[in-house]
Design a protein that fits this description.
By secondary structure, the chain is an alpha/beta fold. It is built from 13 helices and 12 strands. The protein folds into 2 domains: about 200 residues, Glucose-6-phosphate isomerase like protein, domain 1 (Rossmann fold, 3-Layer(aba) Sandwich); about 150 residues, 3-Layer(aba) Sandwich (Rossmann fold), CATH 3.40.50. Helix 1 runs parallel beside helix 6, helix 2 runs parallel beside helix 6 and helix 2 packs antiparallel against helix 9. It is globular and about 70 Å long. About 40% of the residues are buried.
Amino acid sequence: MIKFDFNGLEPKSDEVEVFNDADFDFTKIQPDMDRMLEVAGKHGDVKNLIILARGGSVSTFRAFWHGYGKYISDKKVYFVDTVDPDYIFYVKDKCKPQDSLVISISKSGTTVDVIENVLNFDGFTQVIITTDSDNPLNAIAKEKGYDTLSHQEVGGRFSGLTEVSLFPSVLCGLDISEIRKGGAQGYVDFAKDTNDAKNLALIIRELSEKKYDQIFWPIYSRKLVAFSGLIAQLINETVAKEGKGISTVIAEGPESQHFLNQRFFGGPKNMIGIFTTVAGFDEEETVAVPENLKSVKLRDGNVGNLDGMKLSDSMRFELQGTYEEAKNSKIPSLKMEIDKVDEFNLGYFTAYLHVFAIYLARAFEVNPFDQPEVEGSKKISFEARKNYKK
C-alpha cells in the first residue's frame, strides 16, 4: 500500500476520467495461470534464466528481480536487452545450455534485435512469449519446438502483471499469487472517483502550466529504485507526445543528493519533486562508534553523535534533509511511502504506476496507449540490415 504526503498541493479540478474508456480495463487481463505453471514445472531446476526482451517486456520483471527476487532466489538472472556482442559472449560463456533457460519476449513477434538474440542462443532451451498470431517469433518457436506462452493483448509497458513478468518470477520462487493480489487491489484503489494517482496527475498537469516540465524522482530504497526503468518508460512513452507531456529524472537516494541536488535547487525552477521511500526495511544495521573515536570532530558535532544510529533512521534523515529543503525553497514536492517491498506491494506499486501514467496522459489530453514516434528509427535500422550484404 502507498501513503501520500501532498505537502499542501492539491488539484484545482477533477476533470480526468479514464476507467470509462473502452480500451482500458486491466481487470479483464487475466494470465493463463495453468499454462504458465505447466511450462514452469518443466524448467524449475535450471540455474540460470536468460531474458531476451526490450522495453516494457523486461522492465517490470527487472524491477521484481532486483527489488526482491535476487534477495530470496538461488538462481542467476541475465537480462539480454541488447545486441552488444561483448555482453552476449559474456552471458553465453557464463551459462551452460543444460543449466539455463532462455525466455524470449516480444508482443509483436517482430522485434528485430530480439529475433537476433533468439538466433544467437540457438542450442539453449527457450520459452517464447508472444501474441497468438502468425509472426516470425511464433514461426521460429514452431520450427524449433520451443514452448510458447501467450502475450496478453496489452501494450508491453502495461504488461507487468501478465505472463511477461509472472513466468520468470515464478521460476525464481516469487509468490505470483500475491503479486497478482496486490495488482488487483491497486487497480481497484486507483479506479475510485477520487484517488491519489488521479490527484497527482492533475497536480502535475496544472503545475506544467506554470512551466514545471520535469519530475525529479529520488527513490530512497535500493529495492524500490529497481522500478526506475519502468517509471521512466511509462511516463515518457505514455505521456510525451504531440509536443506535450513531461519528462522525469529518476535516481537512487541518498546518492542522488551528490549529483542532482545542485540541479534541483540551483538550476532552472522547472522541476517537481516526488520523494519515494519505504515505511519499513526488512533488515536493520546499527552504527557502533568505538570510544576512542567518539570525540572526533564532525561538522558542528562529533562522530560520537552517530553511536547507536539505526541505518533505517539514517536513510530517513537523508530524505528529510532534501525534502525539507525543497519546502524551504518553495519547490513543489510531495512524498510517497510504500509499506514494504514484498510480493503484494510489488504488484500494488506496479498497478499504481500503470494507472498514474494513464491518468497523466489523459490530463495532458494524449492517447496513453500508442507510441507513434518510436517506429521511424526501427524502419531505418531494419533497412540497414536488409542492405547489409549489398
